[in-house]
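Q: Predict the bound structure with NAP.
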Amino acid sequence: MGRLTGKTALVTGSSRGIGRAIAEKLGREGALVAVHYANGANSAEEVVAAVEGDGGRAFAVRAELGVPGDVDTLFEGLAAGLEERTGSADLDILVNNAGLMAMGAPEEVTPDMFDRMMAVNAKAPFFIVQRALATLRDGGRVINISSGLTRVANPDQVTYGMTKGALEQIALHFSRHLGPRRITVNTVAPGSTDNGGELFKIPEVREALSKLSTFGEVGDPAAVADVVAFLASDDARWVTGAFIDATGGTLLG
Ligand code: NAP
Ligand code: 2V4
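A: Predicted complex:
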């Protein structure tokens, strides 16, 4: 028996990177996992297969976030997948992980780039939480994946940091709103984490990013996923409205 046996979970952006590690971990802990993706249908099916290969249960749900109708599409797919497997659309664990990342001089940011990033990283999670209120079970969990960049400066990621600052407000205000239902709402903030992207394959970049952590390594998605699984579990029932630093000591100064 895993810690999450009998629970249902939605992990947005879990076709790759940190989201994939979270989906796999929650699946290993016994949750039925909705593996959400936008473009990576094959990757999402691989994640489903990986969860099933570990003896768990999962299904894929497609929805591009940050476009009109995004939340409707997501929750229609989610409800269909859950009802088929459990007879109910009820959700226990919502992980808002999907996010857009970009780097560039502040001088080069355009209004369209700003709007797009805000729409995916902050607006979509807000409306996903709002929509989930109807089907989240009492005792449920909302976990938002932010970034250490709300605490440490990098001018080339100012808009990204702004979107994550907005995202973090969800934990503060919704933890109060949902306390009476024993639903906890928390933020997990990774630092530089090897999501399998090309950046982490460039030796000089990897070396520079590794030095940011007090452990001298870039983050491992599985290490972030373990923190998320703790927050999703009953062991974390007294933790709400919290900012959990999962940067490997990058914010120590
Ligand atoms: P990633 O490897 O780039 O994967 C992003 C995931 O989000 C993919 O599954 C992608 O789906 C999905 N996604 C992106 N835009 C989407 C959209 N508009 N609609 C729907 N899905 C979308 O990301 P990651 O590095 O694992 O990061 C995951 C989260 O951790 C993000 O919120 C990020 O800000 C945060 N974070 C990352 C780092 C890091 O160093 N990697 C550090 C701190 C925080 P498809 O591929 O299917 O399109
Ligand atoms: O430097 C980060 C960082 C990064 C990157 O490594 C590049 C990437 C993967 O393309 C986007 C990215 C997202 C992040 O949220 C962070 C991050 O949180 C971070 C970095 C460096 C130092 C502290 C941090 O919190």
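A: The chain has a mean pLDDT of 98.
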